[in-house]
Amino acid sequence: MIEKKQILDILQSYDQKKISIATVCSHSSLQIFDGARKEGFRTIGICVGEPPRFYDAFPKAKPDEYIIVDSYQQIPDIADKLREKNAIIVPHGSFVEYMGSDKFTDLAVPTFGNRNVLNWESDRDKEREWLEGAGIHMPRKIEDPRDINGPVMVKYHGARGGRGFFVAKSYEEFERYIEPHQKYTIQEFIIGTRYYLHYFYSPLRNEGYSLSEGTLEMLSMDRRVESNADEIFRLGSPKELTEAGIQPTYVVTGNVPLIARESLLPLVFSIGEKVVEQSIKMFGGMIGPFCLETVFTDKLEIKVFEISARIVAGTNIYMSGSPYSDLIEENLSTGRRIAQEIKLGQRLNQLDRIIS
């Protein structure tokens, strides 16, 4: 991983009046570009091949300029060009997945957030160490697939947008669907309602829901629409589907909005607070947006099964604000909130606290 001192030296060389926001044209880039423009930043879209034509249909979210690469693995080759344009990278799930975590953590361009979080988020064993260390309730982990004696969720490591996840109810089913040579984890399947909770941690602000350092914000919530898993049972019972050789898949194809009953908000903030405080202790803090992927049970418990330590695509529902973010500031998206934090870092001369 590139040393933070190298990044801060690059940042020191920037013209602070000409900072631009750059990201890969995918995932949540429309929201990131829109939010950056609303806060007065110039925007740069990184794309493979020709710029995507659909950006022309959304002029308020179209980047001011594009930098074209032949493949995402070539993004390090344009580092000089990004630095010349005083660029700060805003990462998202597709950015990291397409480029590869090693190349991303070595990228010699100032990046919003703490790159150290990637080591803890992308490895499911380390992720569990982090969350359980924070006192978070997680689904039970099954170490040996031969011990499967009820529904479990099998997940591969890294950000895959749900691709390859599957449910197994026995060792035989596990053996049937597992991909050889892939690193995986097995969790008990928790019955309940899935809530994806979109937080924002600011080490710079001191007004609001205060932590040991900085503040925690709840910006929005969503639920994911997962390819055929949400519709497949129209075709028959689980037994009939199995007999027909039809297997549910969990590739995320979209998102729908949610709000939680107000009595659950203290618990929602409590688990977010614990995760942030533990991140500060373990690796210097998780900065900016993050998402706790949870199940709310009928006992009104919240089980956390995963964390995404950056902006998630579920926030795209709320480009003009959510029922929660509107109570902070009207028309506040997560993309705009990122731009505001960078702007605040400039004003306070504390960009070094939120850039790595």
Which helices and strands appear, and what pairs or packs with what?
Blueprint: H1 4-13, E1 20-24, H2 29-38, E2 42-48, E3 65-69, H3 79-84, E4 87-89, H4 93-99, H5 101-106, H6 117-121, H7 124-133, E5 152-156, E6 166-168, H8 171-177, E7 184-188, E8 193-202, E9 209-210, E10 215-226, H9 238-243, E11 252-257, H10 265-283, E12 288-296, E13 302-308, H11 334-347
Parallel strand pairs: 1-2, 1-4, 2-3
Antiparallel strand pairs: 5-6, 5-7, 8-10, 8-12, 9-10, 10-11, 12-13
Percent in helix: 25-40%
> CATH fold name of the domain at 1-111, please?
Rossmann fold
Strand % is 15-25%
**Biggest sheet overview:** 6 strands, antiparallel
- Specify the CATH architecture of the domain at 1-111: 3-Layer(aba) Sandwich
From N to C, what is the helix and strand string? HEHEEHEHHHHEEHEEEEHEHEEH
Integer-rounded radius of gyration: 21 Å
End-to-end separation in angstroms reads 10 Å
Q: At the first level of CATH, what is the class of the domain at 1-111?
A: Alpha Beta
Task: Give the strand tally.
Answer: 13
Instruction: Please work out how many helical segments DSSP would assign.
Output: 11
The shape is: globular
SSE class: alpha+beta
GO biological process, one term: 'de novo' IMP biosynthetic process
Pfam family, one: DUF1297
Organism: Methanosalsum zhilinae (strain DSM 4017 / NBRC 107636 / OCM 62 / WeN5)
Enzyme class: ligase
